[in-house]
């Protein structure tokens, strides 16, 4: 498999404002950020572990990122620190997520039968994201706007699954 870049929008972010930092994450998140180093105090608040708040149905990575980002800055180093072994289907999906184009492996009735499961996952992921935003120590008006952004991004993302096409990004 050929390596492809992820995380370019996070190489040099200098976003001081918490709202803008979280908004940036909602627009440009990607799953491999999950395989990172985090300061321990960024994962806990008042003796509550972020991990105790996770919904086991979605296990979406975005709530973790939001929980950490409210604490401060983040930085992605543009170098490969480790390799993750994956299968061709997962690799093709991840590449599509970042580069766009025609959704791979989306032919036939089996794909269309999988759409309810994909919708179910995205609904739970959105609930987890909204619940996490509610827990953040930020202004209620900002929470509301972030939840709208999250909802709109999830709808757009699911629409790409339905149409099996995503705008190309380079």
Description:
With 170 residues, the protein is mainly α. The protein has one domain (8-166). Helix content is 49%, strand content 5%. The chain is built from five helices and four strands. The protein has helices spanning 18-28, 62-69, 88-99, 108-135, 140-163; strands at residues 44-45, 48-49, 101-102, 165-166. It has a two-stranded antiparallel ribbon. Strand 1 (44-45) and strand 2 form a beta hairpin. Helix 4 runs antiparallel to helix 5 (140-163). The longest helix has 28 residues, at 108-135. The model has no long low-confidence stretch (mean pLDDT 81).
Write the layout of secondary structure elements.
Layout: H1 18-28, E1 44-45, E2 48-49, H2 62-69, H3 88-99, E3 101-102, H4 108-135, H5 140-163, E4 165-166
Antiparallel strand pairs: 1-2, 3-4
Concise structural overview:
This protein is mainly alpha-helical and 170 residues long. 49% of the residues lie in helices and 5% in strands.
N- to C-terminal separation?
A: 18 Å
Query: What characteristic shape results from the CA principal axes?
Result: globular
Please tally the β strands and state the result. Answer: 4
What is the average of the pLDDT values? 81
Rounded to the nearest angstrom, the radius of gyration is: 17 Å
Report the uncertain regions: none
- Overall number of domains: 1
Q: Helix and strand succession?
A: HEEHHEHHE
How helix-rich are the residues, as a percent range? 40-55%
**Share in β-strands:** under 5%
Q: Look at the helices and sheets and give the structural class.
A: mainly alpha
Profile the largest sheet. Answer: 2 strands, antiparallel
**In what order do the strands lie side by side in the largest sheet?**
1-2
Total helical elements = 5
């Amino acid at each position: 498999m050929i390596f492809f870049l992820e995380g370019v929008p996070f190489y040099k972010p200098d976003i001081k404002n918490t709202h803008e930092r979280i908004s940036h994450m909602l627009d440009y998140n990607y799953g491999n950020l999950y395989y990172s180093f985090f300061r321990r105090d960024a994962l806990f608040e008042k003796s509550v572990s972020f991990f105790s708040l996770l919904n086991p149905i979605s296990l979406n990575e975005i709530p973790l990122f939001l929980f950490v980002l409210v604490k401060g800055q983040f930085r992605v180093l543009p170098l490969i620190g480790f390799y993750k072994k994956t299968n061709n289907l997962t690799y093709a999906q991840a590449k599509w997520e970042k580069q766009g184009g025609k959704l791979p492996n989306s032919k036939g009735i089996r794909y269309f039968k999988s759409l309810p499961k994909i919708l179910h996952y995205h609904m739970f992921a959105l609930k987890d994201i909204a619940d996490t935003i509610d827990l953040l120590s930020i202004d209620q008006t900002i929470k509301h706007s972030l939840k709208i952004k999250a909802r709109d991004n999830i709808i757009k993302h699911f629409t790409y699954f339905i149409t099996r096409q995503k705008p190309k990004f380079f």
